[in-house]
């Protein structure tokens, strides 16, 4: 299955007095039938984003010129799309990802998994959070993350008016209603719900009920560290 790419430039507002303007990139990620792929990971150089529930993403402060966009999602074949970003413009790119076959003989993901788990193990040694690896997740025998978290001390699962599960930290100094921040593979995932990522997609999980013990690389980029954080490390396709 080929990747469909549409690149359309739109002028950005002029920045008076700026010698150099950056570029930005908007886009969407879908499967071959046109269904949006939620929470796909999109990166250009060292700038990363997570697609929302509609498969949409937005990257800003990009360097103009020829570059490569990398898009990946568990269960789909990763794609690398080459394009040229124009200075002072907002470009758009629309990508179709093909689903991976059910069986993937000969694919070795041990190195990729080890690299991803290095941060998790470092945090587990030095941190003060709750750490759950893949073996422990499999023992829970559930597809919903809320079922994994609801029995943890200092963690509460409540419901909104539609019955959607919400995660709250009960040991916060900010009051009873204290939603933590979610991170996917080191990327802050705003608007992510506790059950938006299936347990089958998770390799490891870190839960911090407040700022104590929170790794500095996350603490420095959070707006409400008092409410804690849930750091999800996803499984490598294959």
Write structural notes for this entry.
It is a single chain. With 238 residues, this protein is α+β, with helices and mostly antiparallel strands. The chain folds into 2 domains: 10-96, Immunoglobulin-like (Sandwich), CATH 2.60.40; 110-234, TonB-dependent receptor, plug domain (Ferric Hydroxamate Uptake Protein, Chain A, domain 1), CATH 2.170.130. The chain has helices at residues 110-126, 134-140, 145-149, 216-219, and strands at residues 10-11, 23-30, 41-44, 47-50, 56-62, 65-72, 79-85, 89-96, 130-133, 155-159, 165-169, 181-184, 187-188, 202-208, 229-234. A 5-stranded mixed beta sheet has the order 9-14-15-12-13. A 4-stranded mixed beta sheet has the order 1-8-2-5, with no helix packed on it. The protein has a 4-stranded antiparallel beta sheet with strand order 4-3-6-7, with no helix packed on it. β6 and β7 form a beta hairpin. The longest helix is centred in the middle third of the chain and has 17 residues, at 110-126. It is globular, with a radius of gyration of 19 Å. Mean pLDDT is 80; it is low at 1-10, 12-18 and 103-109.
H and E order = EEEEEEEEHEHHEEEEEHE
Put simply, the count of helices is 4
Derived structural class: alpha+beta
Give the overall silhouette: globular
The Cα radius of gyration reads: 19 Å
Strand runs, count? 15
The CATH first-level class of the largest domain comes to Mainly Beta
CATH fold-level topology of the largest domain: Ferric Hydroxamate Uptake Protein, Chain A, domain 1
Biggest beta-sheet profile: 5 strands, mixed
What distance lies between the first and last C-alpha atoms, to the nearest angstrom? 18 Å
What's the helical proportion of residues?
10-25%
- Low-confidence sequence ranges: 1-10, 12-18, 103-109
Q: CATH superfamily name of the largest domain? A: TonB-dependent receptor, plug domain
> Mean pLDDT score, rounded?
80
Q: Strand order, biggest sheet?
A: 9-14-15-12-13
The total number of structural domains is 2
**From the 3D coordinates, which CATH architecture of the largest domain would you assign?**
Beta Complex
Strand percentage lies at 25-35%
